[in-house]
Amino acid sequence: MSRVARRRQWQRRLRRVGFAVGLIGLCAGVLFVAHRLAEGDLQLSRASNAEPIREVVLRTDGVLDQAWIMRRLAVPPEATLIDLDLAVLRERLLADRQVITATLTRKFPATLEVSLSERSPVARINVRSSPEEAAPRPHLVARDGVVYPGSGYDARLLAELPWLGGVRLRRVSGDSSAAQFAPIFGMPLVAELLATARNEAPALYKTWRVVSLARLESDAEIEVRTDTIDRIIFNARESAGFLRQVAQLDLLLDSVQPDAAGAISEINLAIGRMVDGRIQVPVTFKEGAGGVGGSGARSAELIAPPPPSSRRQVENGRSGTERAPNNSLFFHPTRPSAREF
Q1: What's the pLDDT at 128?
Q2: Using alpha carbons only, what angle is made at residue 173 by residues 171 and 174, rounded to the nearest 5 degrees?
Q3: Where is the POTRA domain (predicted)?
Q4: Domain co-membership, 18 together with 114
Q5: Closest by alpha carbon to 201, among 247, 149, 165, 134?
Q6: What range does the domain containing 310 cover?
Q7: Which of 179, 187, 242, 337 is least surrounded, with the fewest CB atoms within 10 Å of its CB?
Q8: By percentage, how much of the chain surpasses pLDDT 90?
Q9: pLDDT tens string 183-209
Q10: How far apart are the C-alpha atoms of 300 and 334, rounded to whole Å?
C-alpha cells in the first residue's frame, strides 16, 4: 500500500472516532442538562409546597361567608396546597345541601380558591330529625324541593317565607344531627305560585302563612291559608294559570268590604267558571260571620271581571283603570244560602 493510501485510511479512521466522541459528548450534555432541569423543578416545587396556605378566597352567588367556609373545610394551619385532597374537601362542602355546586382551585404559591353556587329558600318547614327530639326545628325548602337547615340568611327575609303543610318527609341518609330528606314533590309548581304572588300581588303575598301540598299529587291543587282566610285553593295543573288566578283573587278581594273579607272561610279558584264573560268563584263564609247572611256557614259566588291575559292588564287593574264596580251596586242576594258579587 502506497504512502498516500495509508494516509487516507488513517484520516477516515480519525473522522469516525471524532464523530463517535462528539456524539457521546452530545448525549452526555443532553442528559446533564435534563438532570439539572429536573433538579431545579423539584427544588422549586418543594419550595412552593413548603409554604402553608395563606388565604382561602370564597366566591359565591349566595349568603355563605368566610367563617362558614373555614369551618366547613377544616384545613390544618400547616397544610400546603399539595397536601390538600380537593375531592374530599369538595364532598365536605356538598354535604351541606345549601350548596348546589362547589369548585376548588389551587393558586400557587399559597392560595385556595373556592367557588360556590347556592340554593335560595322559597318556604319553611318544621322538621323532626329523630323521634327523640322534643320539638321540631325549622328548615328551609328550595325551589327544587331540597330541605336544608340554612345558614347566613337574614332573619327578616326568613320571617316573610310561608310555612309548608301537608308534607310527609322521607329520610334518605344521615344521622339525627345531619339528616337528609328526599326532595319534596311538586315544589317547582309551589315556587312558581309563590313567585307569581310575590311579584304581582306583594301585599296579598305578605298575608300568606301556610301553603299545603296535601292535595297537590292527588288533585293537582295547592291550598293557601292567609291571615284572614282559612283556605284559598289554586289549580296547579299548569303553572301558566297562576298569574290569572292570583290576579283574579286580588281583584275579588279588592271588591269585598274589609269586614266581609275577614268573614271569608274559603275561596276556590280551582273550579271557577265563566258566566256572561265573567268568572264565578265559589266562596264559603265563616260560621256566624256578621254581615254576610246571618249565623251559620254560608256559600256564595264571587263574579269577577274577565281574568287578565297578560301582566300589562294586571298592572292596569292595580292602577285603577280596570277596578271592580262599587260593592253597593255589585252585591245582591240570589238565594238564602248564596250571594253573588
Answers
A1: 83
A2: 110
A3: 51-119
A4: no
A5: 247
A6: 185-340
A7: 337
A8: 51
A9: 999 999 999 999 999 999 999 999 999
A10: 9
